[in-house]
Amino acid sequence: MHTHTHYPAHAPVRVVSFTYSPSSRMTATVPADLDAWLAAHHANAMDELFAFLRMPSVSARSEHASDCRAAAQWLADRLASAGFTSALHDTPGHPVVLAEWRGAGADAPTLLVYGHYDVQPAEPLELWTSPAFEPEVRDGRIYARGSVDDKGQLYLHVKALEAHLAVRGTLPVNVIVLAEGEEEVGSVNLEAFLETHRERLRCDGVVISDSTMFAPGVPSILSSLRGMAYVQIDVQGASSDLHSGMYGGAVVNPAMALARILATLHDDQGRVAIAGFYDAVQAWPDAVRAQMRTLPFDEEHFRAETGAPALGGEVGYTVLERLWTRPTCEVNGLLSGYTGEGAKTVLPAVAMAKVSFRLVPDQDPKVIERLVAEHVARVCPAGVTATVTALHGGRPWRSELGGPLHEAGVAALEAAFGRAPVITGEGGSIPVVGDFERILGAPVLLMGFGLPGENAHAPDEWISEENFRQGARAAATLLDRYAAAVAGPSRA
Ligand code: BES
Ligand code: ZN
To answer: Taken in order 476, 414, 215, 363, is the CA torsion positive or negative?
Structure first.
C-alpha cells in the first residue's frame, strides 16, 4: 500500500534562480515582420494548441489509437492550412505526419523539423490539479499532458512556419515537418520509416524542440542525449500461485529470485555490474566537459526539488556528470504476488520487472540487451526460470557543435531571448536523433523550450506560455539565419 507517492519531474530539476549578465554582443534580432505576426496571432496559437492538447494521444494505450490518429490528422490539417503539402503515413503503429514545402527550390537547403504528437499516459489522474486533457493556464504556465513534451514545442515550430508563409508568402529554405506518434514508446517504427523514405526526407539539417532550457531565461542548445535499452525480466516458478504455508520453504519463490537478480545489477560503487557493460563507453570530450563545468548547478537544490532524502549514484561523478555522461540501470516497475489491501499468504508463481538502461556513446542497445540477457541467465537462482525480453532501444547521441545549423541556432536563440545560449547535456533520450544523423546524414540541432520542474511524464505537466512565445520567435528566426549561414561563409 502506498500512502504518498512523490513524482519528481522527468527532466532533471536544475537551479531555477541565478543571475546571468545579458550578452554584450547584441547582433541578432528577430525579424520585425515575423515578430509582429507572431505577436498578433499569439491568441490564435493558444486556442489551437489547446485543441491539440485536448486530444488524448497516448501512444502506449491501444484504446487511444483513434485519438492518436485524430491528433495526427489535426496536425496535418493545420500544416496544410499554413501552406504545406501534408499527409498521414501509416506505420505498423501510429501514423507519421509528413508535411513539405519545397518552394525555395532545389538549390536551397532543406531543413527538417521533427517532433512527436504522442504523449505519456496521464495516470495517476487524481494527482492532477486540473484534468490532464483540459488545458488550463495558471501563473503563466499551460498545464496539460503533452504541453511541453512535446505538443507545445512542436506546435511553436508550426506557428513559426505559418508566420513566414503568411507574412512573406515564402520560406527562406525548403522545409519538411516530420511528426511521429510513437516517441514515448521508443520510436519503434520510425527507423524503418526513415530508411524507406530516405530520398524524400533528404535534408541538410534537422531541428528538434523536445528538451528543456537550463534555467528560465537561459536559452539552451542540447549537445547530448543518452540512449536506451529497455527490457522486461519475467521469472517463472511453480505453474500457479501456491499456499505459502503448504509450499513456502520448499518451492523457490520467484519474487525473491527476482529480487536477488536485481540486486546483482549494481556494485556497491553504484556501477552497473554486468560484464562488458562499460566496454564501449567513450571518454567525454574535454571541451564539452569544460562547458559543463561552467554551468552553475546546486546539487542540494536539485535534491530538495526531488523530495528524496539523499542523492545516490555512481561514486566519483558529480550529479550533472551522472545524469549527462554516465550510463545507468534503473528498475522502472516491479510486479509479483499479492499487492492489494491487507495480507494474503501466497507464494507467487511469477514475478516481473521492467528495467531500463540509459546509454552513452558508443554503447549499442542491441549489445547491451544481449549482455543483460547473459547476465540474468548467469545469476538466475535454481528453481525458477528467467526470461529477458527486449522492449525497445535507442542509440545515444552527442553533437559536434558547429557548422551552419548550430551557428544559426545560436543566433536565433540569442535574438529571441536577448542572450547567447548555453550548451547543455541531457539524461533523457530521443531515440531517433542518432538515426537522423546516420540515415539522413544530416546534423541535428536540439533547441528546447521546456523548463526545470516542468513535470514531463508526471502529473501537472506544464509549458511556460512565455517560452512558447519566445520559442516561436526563435524558430521563425532560425529559418532566416540558417539560409544566411548556408549561403554565407561555409559556401564561400
Ligand atoms: N522529450 C523527452 C526526452 C527529453 C527529456 C529530452 C528531457 C530532454 C529533456 C522524450 O519525449 C522522452 O521522454 N523520451 C523517452 C524516450 C524513451 C521512451 C526511449 C525518455 O527519455 O524516456
Ligand atoms: Zn517524453
So the answer is: positive
Tell me the one-letter amino acid at 347.
L
Burial class (CB in 10 A: 0-12, 13-18, 19+), 270: middle
What pLDDT, in 10s, does the model give residues 8-32? 333 333 333 333 334 444 468 999 9
Among the atoms of ligand 1, which is closest to the Cα of residue 226? 21
The Cβ-side half-sphere exposure at 56, using a 13 Å CA radius, reads 14
Residue 422 Cα distances to 94, 301, 425, 475, 492, angstroms: 35, 20, 10, 17, 28
Could you tell me which residues come within 8 angstroms of residue 88 by beta carbon, excluding any fewer than 6 positions away? 69, 72, 73, 76, 95, 96, 97, 98
Residue 225 CA to ligand 1 center (angstroms) comes to 9
Ligand 1 shell residues, CB under 6 Å: 11, 149-150, 183-184, 186, 210-212, 228, 394, 426, 428-431
Which cell goes with 184? Answer: 514515448
Residues of the chain with pLDDT under 70: 1-27, 489-492
User: How far is Cα of residue 475 from the mean position of the Cα atoms in its chain?
Assistant: 19
Task: Tell me which residue has its CA closest to atom 8 in ligand 1.
Answer: 211
Calpha distance 84→278 (Å, rounded):
46
Distance CA 297, CA 322 (A): 13
Q: In this structure, are residues 212 and 425 in contact, taking their beta carbons and an 8 Å threshold?
A: no
pTM, rounded to two decimals: 0.88
